[in-house]
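User: My advisor, Dr. K., asked me to get a structural model of this assembly before our group meeting. I'm new to this, so sorry if the format is off. These are the inputs:
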Amino acid sequence: MAKILPRKDVVIVGLGWSGAILAHELTDAGLDVLAIERGPWRDTARDFNIGYAQDELRYAIRRDLFLQPATETMTVRNSDAERALPMRDYASFLPGNGVGGAGVHWNGQTWRFWNSDFRTRSNIVERYGAAKLGELTVRDWGVTGADMESAYDRFEALAGISGTAGNVGGTIRPGGNPFEDPRARDYPNPPMKMTKAPILFAETAMAMGLHPFPCPSANLSQPYVNPLGIAMGQCTFCGFCERFGCANYSKASAQTTILPVLMKKPNFEVRTDSEVLHVDLDPSKTFARGVTYVDTSGETWFQPADLVLLCAYGLHNVRLMMLSGIGTIYDPATDVGTVGRNYCYQTNAGVTVYFDDATLNPFIAAGALGQTVDDYNGDAFDHSALDFVGGAGINCVPTNGRPIAFHPTPPGTPRWGADWKKAVAKNYSNALSFGSQGSSYAIRGNHLDLDPTYTDRFGRPLMRMTFDFADNDIRMSAWVSDRMEAIAGRMGGRQVVSDRRKKGWDSTVYQSTHNTGGAIMGTDPKASAVNPFLQSWDVPNVFVVGASAFPQNPGKNPTGTVGALAFRAADAIRRQYLANPGKPLVTP
Amino acid sequence: MNPATFLLALAAAALAPTAAFAGDVDQADRIGRGAYQAVLGDCAGCHTAPGGAPFAGGAPIATPFGTLIPPNITPDRDTGIGDWSLDDFRSAMTRGVGHDGIRLYPAMPYPNYAKMPEPDIDDLWAFLGTIAPVKNDVDANQLPFPFSIRTLMIGWNLLEFTPKPFAPDAAQSAEWNRGAYLVQGPAHCGACHTPKTIFGGDDAGKALTGASLQGWWAPDITAAPTTGVGSWSKEELVAYLATGVNGHTIASGPMAEAIAASTSKMTPEDLGAIATYLKTLGPSDAARPTPLAASDPAMKHGAAIYVDNCSACHGGRGEGSKDLFPALASSPIVAQADATTLARMVVIGSQGVHTAAKPTTPAMPSLGWRLDDAAVADVLTFVRNSWGNAAARVTPGTVAKLRN
Amino acid sequence: MSTPTSPTRRRVLSTAAWLAASSIPGVAFARSISGALPWDANSAAPPPKLQLNGWFFFTSAEVETVTAIVDRLIPADALSPSGAECGVVVYIDRQMIGPFGRSSRLYTQGPFFLGTPRQGWQSPDTPAQRWRAGVAALERWVAANRTGRRFAALAAEEKDAVLKDVEAGKIDLGAGVDAKAFFALVLQNTMEGFFADPAYGGNKDMASWRMLGFPGARYDYRDHVDKHGQRYPLPPVSITGRPEWAGKVD
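Assistant: The format is fine. Below is the predicted structure of the whole assembly, which you can bring to the meeting.
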């Protein structure tokens, strides 16, 4: 029997980017806010000590900062015809854990999605006709690029994003991304200094008539003070971003942009090492009474709250909804249900160019230091004559030269022995990789639900993931790989090796922690879980914030949009919801 | 209670007098003025324990003679000062003799408070009376014999202390005199920054030139150009006191606490006065030493340690980073006679100040697990003799003392 | 290192309130933080100091076999000392007694079914159990097929041939040991030991990092980021430091 605690105005599940943004905004509005975080407290000097923060074995290989499968994993299969089995270790994607969430160990590539991404379905139908959709179940988000502009702007200012604007108020700027939507103003910081590999990539792409530009980066190009008054440092190119906490306050995270202010507020509290088991609903299942959580001693607590915000990792938001009975679980056989549909991922491929004597110094790097070509992304190009929709950003962002995972050798090299050593020594500083980060479009067969067999440490069902790459996405990726190989072939190396995306999603190889959907936003309560303000259709005093809301995933990293959606939800709560608490903000 | 809440409590006390005084405008003014006197004197700094109720008794203070615990000064009758009279309070503030004639130890800076005019003390008393009584029995006396005998303070007072009101210097400006009053009086800067005699009293000849303080070194705050605040402009000094951060450094340790609880809440005029006064003290610089040669083994080791451990934050040339990482180049903090604070930063780490104006609260990580005493000494020797700094080499013994 | 306990003159009015339900009866939560950004003196959790002597997991017979394997995977040559000379066997031994060797961070609940390769490892066996069983199976196979010798006694070319067959799954190691999967584990742990920070027992003197030109646990390349195509001038540094810090190398 759970013990009952004094009520709070707001309970936030998960203190990562979304949770911290919402906590800051809602405490500013005078609300008493409690965040409940499954993992530990973490902060820069205390936990990302500059003497050992750059430990590849501990953080990148053993993944000290991540969610461990013993705490929670999920079962996976490529189709409903297979028996789902648990990922006994995470590999293909790596959910975060602890205060700061995945924002602690992200790379920092910070994108805005385009209006054509938010109107994916309408845009395809209007431009190419409904037949172009084929089996795809892509949907519109219920927002436009213009709706999102100011929220993106606030997130970029908060995080100090470094980049070159490509379109300010409709004016195309040289050196930026000419395909982006108009933005109100420049990035808060100029782009980062470039290393040799992205320069070589950009020069080659430009000579081919493409439009390379610096990847917008949350690794800061210069010291910066954000709108909360919090100072950040200049990125020092250590090459330990992805999978690592930043030791010198130069990568944007909740720690470096929000927590110093948030933690001082008398109306904010965080309880760490406490896992929310479910949201408690009243018998009508249309009102949340609070949440039940368990602490490290095994004691169970009921925390009453007027407003519950699910701000965990997207996949965990979806599972919490399922475990709580918020909405109905999607059944692909009948195409009925709201929670678990439109699970999408990222359709990536790569290419490596081997040089003889390039001295690329791969260890001088940052998670978002590089150049991008968006000519083949989203709907930036005409798909009329093509057998697919969607696209990919081509990114030359060499994030690290960490030797356990990065010691490339060309095909045909033995995996060990004297010849292997020679090849490793020769190629370490002479291999240049870039990749396509492709869209992942929804199909009916890709979905999330609860596993009938496997349970977590508390006996609750694990989530079951059924996923394979849509045929559309495989065709898209192949077409983009052709173009990457063309770029690679003109870079002057001795050998080009292409790593193409194949059908059959493999959970054992790291690809991307950009899992999206499952609690998607939209304007139809039958086909979406939350409205365009991230408010649950079924339980209006629950908001579900994160990439779980993406109806499909464009060819871009999700964090910029996750942050912007958090600001959008915060605005809706402050300006509309609080005047009529418990009421839906949108009437279908 | 956290500082923000505490501030709210102060503001509430100042602006919304308790029912007993409702309607009494003069009394409300007195309480408001008294609340500001509590800020000037940083009463809460000592008399509040971490996480404890404000003024209900503080964290232990280690003195060379033993440990003292600042007592409960809320108006609780049993464990606080609820049964004191105004005369008792005046006596404690100006003569170090409390209720029932109990003698206070000079960790309570009554030699400084003695310079306060009586009306200010009375205002402070009025303010303290508005604090909610908190029952918290503090065992204030934990000194070993013979220091545990409070009557010894009679002798100490004879030797070391003559109560004197503040005497203005007619040759100086009103602003300078206000600054001198604050520094010597309620703000009791010398309590930390002035070296002590063997009896624990201020060494008047070395006023504010820096002193040892429980594992820290309270730096020279005279106008000495290389070790004091002489190289800081008045505006930079005011910014430091108001926010804990200026273009050169970021407050940490005991000064961070003093800034958060006291100086950041002072008026800009008072901070300007303090700065004006401090910048006229000294200079007391001894002959400036010559930096050690780069070929010195400690300098060579230190340079290697610096580039591997320090440069990612403090910069390859000790330049630091705005509002985040203190500059080490041409730094009076780095050049202090005593390197205890520097060694402490490296070995133990430290969290910087948080103020509303400068909320970043950056922290120096602990590197004591990575660097042994010789390595810490060498890297500090290197920093103290690079980029415009010149100071005595640091010995492993200085570092070792911090580890024990 | 001890924690200094002497109090400072003042303390922040409110430091974080760290309350553990297990130690404070009646407190309603595991750990509550409010009012300030938590910070602790001496906070650091570096890799534990390595005990260099002795074996914690492998028997002396296993050490002989593993040494022989690792020295073929990473043979000594002009580029670096051998795997075992670099401490890779020490590394693996220490890993086996930690969370990795015991699978303590993995999802280990049953039931266990054989899935597709894309569903990943589906067995209750831990890496420690797999090393133990695999080494024993390898020695049984060598004894049975190479005139009763032990693996370490084979000539270098013979060792390489056996290892290539294990790698390709051409040898049936029997007794529930999947040769290919065992080799993959051996190779994975060997490479980890060779390339990881020396703090974990392998990569002695940062030999692999010197071979690659990887500067190690550094954090600031601002002075070199613009120097395209030029080799980085400074030597590697480990979490445990480098000889130049103590003047052992000029």
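One thing worth pointing out at the meeting: Residues 3-579 of chain A form a domain with the FAD/NAD(P)-binding domain fold (CATH 3.50.50.60).

User: Perfect, thanks a lot.
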